Amino acid sequence: MGKVVIIGSGPAGVSAALYARRGGAEVTVFSKGLSLSGLEKAEKIENYYGLAEPISGAELHARGIDGAKKIGVEFVEDELLSLMFNDTFTGFKITGKDHMLTADSVIVATGAYRQSLNVPGVKEFAGKGISYCATCDAFFYRGKTVAVVGAGVYALHEAQALLPHAAQVFMLTNGTEPVAEVPQAIRVCTAKIAAIEGGERVEKVLFADGTQLKLDGVFMALGTAGSTAIAKKIGAQLDGNHIQIDAHGATNVPGLFAAGDCTGGLLQIAKAVYQGAEAGLSAVKYLRTK
Ligand SMILES: Cc1cc2nc3c(=O)[nH]c(=O)nc-3n(C[C@H](O)[C@H](O)[C@H](O)COP(=O)(O)OP(=O)(O)OC[C@H]3O[C@@H](n4cnc5c(N)ncnc54)[C@H](O)[C@@H]3O)c2cc1C
């Protein structure tokens, strides 16, 4: 029938996997696991159907994955770096730190929006020199000086996407050391960021130690790729910080669906499970018509 890849193993992703697998699709869940799930911090859950006694978020997460494995869902533990179309635009390419998968349909279930840098200028210059997608916007910075904010593998991936276009690429790690080795062509600055300033557009980054860096663009890549960055890269419409879907979990990109906290609204397990079911069924319907 075809292959569905689901990004995220929280309640939305696992529910989507159950429905897509039972619908006959080959299903892989690609996820960082519990570590980035809303369930990680949930000590006790008792407002979900069937829980006479409260259980921890971690336990619920493990039970969900066990159930899905029993019906043949495959799990790949990795951090997503980018979701793109394949070369022929007939499907999707999912690139992680250690794995590369292809899929006929993808369901994004990556949880709630993750905050970007909380300093003056970040909101003001969004779209005016502050970007959340190097692959989408690198071309606009040909021959210019740009910086990527972040210290993780995702930030490094974004910086590398800018290298062929920009004259100079900085990685601003905001007070931490980079988690991986950074190629020499990328200049690392570990000072804490105090503000982003400019006029009509971004012109400089001010650091807490009083120094500053003049530049033309800043790319936010803190932590791991969140739902907004994933959606922007592939052209899915957002509603604020949330992925916009129809009543059946479809985004505006054919074959791409979304479910759970990443779509906004009620941030609860019941809603994530419901939307996951819708998205799983919709992905199967999409594969049947492909
Ligand atoms: C402290 C706390 C207590 C809560 N208590 C309750 C409660 O009692 N009842 C209730 O109904 N709800 C509760 N919630 C809310 C509930 O946890 C969420 O609504 C639910 O987990 C959302 O499910 P989801 O599948 O959409 O996203 P998540 O559960 O957040 O799952 C997201 C998944 O995406 C993966 N992911 C994200 N980014 C990447 C990436 N770049 N690469 C690879 N994988 C990625 C993560 O690893 C994770 O597996 C609580 C939340 C918190 C924080």
What does this structure look like?
- The chain is an alpha/beta fold and 290 residues long.
- The chain has two domains: 3-114 and 225-289, FAD/NAD(P)-binding domain (3-Layer(bba) Sandwich), CATH 3.50.50; 130-220, FAD/NAD(P)-binding domain (3-Layer(bba) Sandwich).
- It has helices at 11-22, 57-70, 134-137, 153-162, 227-234, 269-289; strands at 3-7, 26-31, 74-77, 80-85, 92-96, 100-103, 105-108, 130-131, 145-149, 168-172, 186-189, 193-198, 202-207, 212-214, 217-220, 238-239, 242-243, 256-258.
- The strands form five sheets. Strands 3-2-1-7-18 form a five-stranded parallel β-sheet, covered by helices on one side. It has a five-stranded parallel β-sheet with strand order 8-15-9-10-11, covered by helices on one side.
- Helix 1 packs parallel to helix 2 (57-70) and helix 1 runs parallel beside helix 6.
- The longest helix is centred in the C-terminal third of the chain and has 21 residues, at 269-289.
- The protein is globular, with a radius of gyration of 20 Å.
- The mean pLDDT is 94.
- Bound molecules: flavin-adenine dinucleotide (FAD).
- Flavin-adenine dinucleotide (FAD) binds next to helix 1 and helix 6.
Notable traits:
290 residues; alpha/beta; FAD/NAD(P)-binding domain; 2 domains; 5-stranded parallel sheet; 6 helices; globular; binds flavin-adenine dinucleotide
